[in-house]
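Re: export button greyed out
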Amino acid sequence: MNARVTPQDSALIRSARFRKEREADWRRLEDLVEKAEKNGLQNMDFAGTRDLASLYRQATTSLAIAREISLDKALLEYLEALTARAYLSVYAPQERLGGLVGRFITKSAPQAMRRSWFYILLGFLCMGLGALAGYLLYLENASWFYVFMPPEMAGGRGPDSTTAFLRSVIYDDDHSSSGLGAFATYLFSHNTRIAIFVFGLGVFACAPAFLLTFYNGLILGAFYALHVDRGLGWDLGGWLSIHGVTELSAICIACGGGMQLGMAVLFPGRNTRKEALRLAGKDAVKLAIVAAIMLVAAAILEGFFRQTVQDMWTRYLIGWTVGFGWLAWFMLGGRARQ
Amino acid sequence: MRSPAADVRKAQRLARKDRRAERGRAASTILPPEGVPLNLPVASIGVRLAAQIADVLITTVAAVCLVILFSALELTRPQTIMAIAMLLFFVIRVPYYILSELAWNGQTLGKRFLKIKVVAHNGGSLSTHALVLRNLMKEAEIFLPGTLLLTLDQESPVASWIALAWVAMAFAIPLMNPYRQRLGDILAGTHVIHLPQPILLKDLAGEAKPMTAAKPGAKGFAFLAHQLDHYGAFELQTLETLLRAQDKFMSPDVHARNRRTVATIVEKIRQKIGFADPIPPARAVEFLRSFYNAQRAHLEQRQLFGDKRADKHHAADETPQ
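Workaround output, generated via the alternate export path:
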């Protein structure tokens, strides 16, 4: 822009002249890049942003020329670094956070859920099969319960405990364990850990995710069979539905996401494994976020409502209403208007 | 005497080293949409680990402050304080990484301290999806096995082995690819680079003219074309580094050593190019500067005509007729 070539400069060698003509522009670009990095592109004035873009393109040209004509190492290194810095600030992400969350909820999450219906179905099948197996095994021999159930999860419940004790756990009127503390405790309970493992382990060729979900189903089936055995099947159903509909679906969805990653590793098709994993990750990560949202909702239900709502049918109503709410979101959200 | 087998092994080792260096060089090149490849060195595991530790410290301090606040307000009971602390740490750190990388264009505070940065692998701009993905995978890759390691007990050897395998995998994946990508980076299509620092040093060829003109009594050095045919770009740039070091402040000890080095180099160059006049020690640096100017002008001229000379062996590379 402001090249000053005086007669005495013409005595310089070509690359030194090249530098002298453009140095002022480079300095200005340096200033602009620093400003953009410090305050963000959004807060720069119009002239600054316009100059940043055009000076950046000039600098890339300068770099390309300098690589051909100059042997000055200092100049080459400077231009390289300057162009790289300018490139990084010109191509910075320019998205507003509010729009991001809104778009995820209204569009991309339900669309991703619909696209991966097959994997989610696999997840549900996995857990369903596990539950069926656990149920049948318990009916065959009650001591299977001890094989499946981790003792800290059973909380003293088992084939040996009395029906009255089982009923007292289901209809427990103890308010001491509700509120924020209980919410936090439930969020980091067994099921959340299972969900994270199921998703993360999916990358290792599906099998670990499949096995873990199946095992979780086994626990559920054996536990349910124990209560059916004592005539408490419907009561346990209510106790579980209030948060379980949400929580167990979250595990199945996480399993679906994990399987999607595993399938990309197992059957990459025409892509490389890395590329296939990257493509599968697009939907899988949305599934994981949906599962996380559902787990937080389940912890809220469990921490605040499970012990305060004592009526069995109200429990069913709340649990399944929330469940259908999720379903409606996944089925109806993000469809293009006709 | 060494056996031929040892020589072969050594040659193979060198070839492997060359290949690795080549891969490393290729990895540090990014092609922006403008089509001029840029050289951005990939950040090593050590630097990234340090940035990660800084970030963990920052988020932990924030979580601890909140826990203290909560217990001061008596919002928690002692039984649940651990669970709440875990929850707060989780609630703070997940958005922290995503939001800070979005706001600062691929840098968390820890990355800012260490001057490293996330870039898109394909040279485009960083997408939100990529940043969310790589930071969510961080949960599964780093924090989950980390917490697992902290809560291990001796009764469950299986869990310990799983945790060990997981941590080993988390470290092995970045070591196995030249971009040092962890799993989350692979999924998101990103990698981490060192932020380059643009520092413009003054042009040696630009300043040399006025300096010789300042001393009217002394005659400038003149070189003939055949005297400039001996060296290539590598030697020129080495000389440049030496000349730039002359401007720095030196202690008397270093100064004396530097003078001896310069005298040796001047002698070497004189013999190589056949420069007949003797150079007084007082004008040794001046001689090197004028030689640098003449040599650079000559080499750049040759380069413009398509004769690129990488180093002093350029003449040997041309196949003799």
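Residues 100-332 of chain A form one domain. The button fix ships in the next patch.
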